[in-house]
Amino acid sequence: VNLALNPPSVLQHLGIAFAPIARTEVSLRFVGGGWRAGGRYQILEQGVNSSWDLSVGLGGMRQSYSFPIDNVLDIVELRDFNRFSVDVPIAIGRRGNWYRFWGGPRLLWTTGRTDMTLNLPRVSQKLLATADSSGIYYGVQTGFAVGYKKVFFGFELNLVQFHGSASLTATTIADGQLAEVNRTVDLNGFVVYPGVALMGEF
Predict the structure, then answer these.
(1) Is residue 126 over pLDDT 80?
(2) In terms of Cα–Cα distance, which of 70, 68, 84 is closest to 132?
(3) CB-CB contact of 109 with 102 (8 Å)
(4) Of 25, 135, 146, 176, which is the most buried if we count CB atoms within 10 A?
(5) What pLDDT is attached to residue 89?
(6) Whole-angstrom Cα distance, residue 81 to residue 91?
(7) Is the pLDDT of residue 109 over 80?
């Protein structure tokens, strides 16, 4: 479960953002097998009411991870790990004709679930295990971008701590009878998440 929540991987990222009214943005993003929809409001605007930009927002995301373990062990069926997240992006930064830089805190809550079925030969009952997990990420992000006019190349680094827990329930056979075993485990980890992007403004 910890590996599913924080998988080491290289992810493709594609997003689009639109400003329907002044200082307000709505966005849609695809990354890591999931979709994120969100919005944000610009509290401070450089050159208007401050020498800095400051925005705060809210986003929701659904991701699904597939583990093709049944390609190796045909007696094991592991369903996709479905994960739901809510994040609160806060960013402060400055911009010029050829540069952008920003930073701020990161805060995200997530929950997920998966289950596994074990089909043993000559055993009529199917043994089932489920995992429900939830946790919170908190930390910082920082980034910069350089470019000209409307096209920029950027780099961002996220450093966050993860604290959470998982509830594991498994059906076993004990003395010829089916029995249920419950376990709760703490999940902790530190996540380093770098990213690069080609950005266009229109």
Answers:
(1) no
(2) 84
(3) no
(4) 135
(5) 93
(6) 30
(7) yes
pLDDT band at 77 (very low <50, low <70, confident <90, very high): confident
Token pair in block for residue 26 = 């709505």
Tokens of 169: 């329930």
The mean of the pLDDT values for the chain is 86
The single-letter code of the amino acid at 137 is Y
Evaluate the CA torsion angle 147, 153, 159, 162 in order and state its sign. positive
* Sequence-ordered strand ranges (E) for the chain: 13-18, 24-31, 34-44, 53-65, 76-78, 81-87, 90-95, 99-118, 127-148, 151-174, 177-200
Identify the bridge partners of residue 76 per DSSP, sorted by sequence position: 118
C-alpha distances in Å from residue 96, one per residue of 100, 148, 175:
6, 10, 72
Would the pTM of this model clear 0.90, i.e. be above it?
no
Q: How far is CA 174 from CA 128, 177, 184, in A?
A: 14, 5, 21
| Sequence-separated (6 or more) residues with CB below 8 Å from residue 150 | 200, 201, 202
Cα 39 to chain center, whole Å? Answer: 16
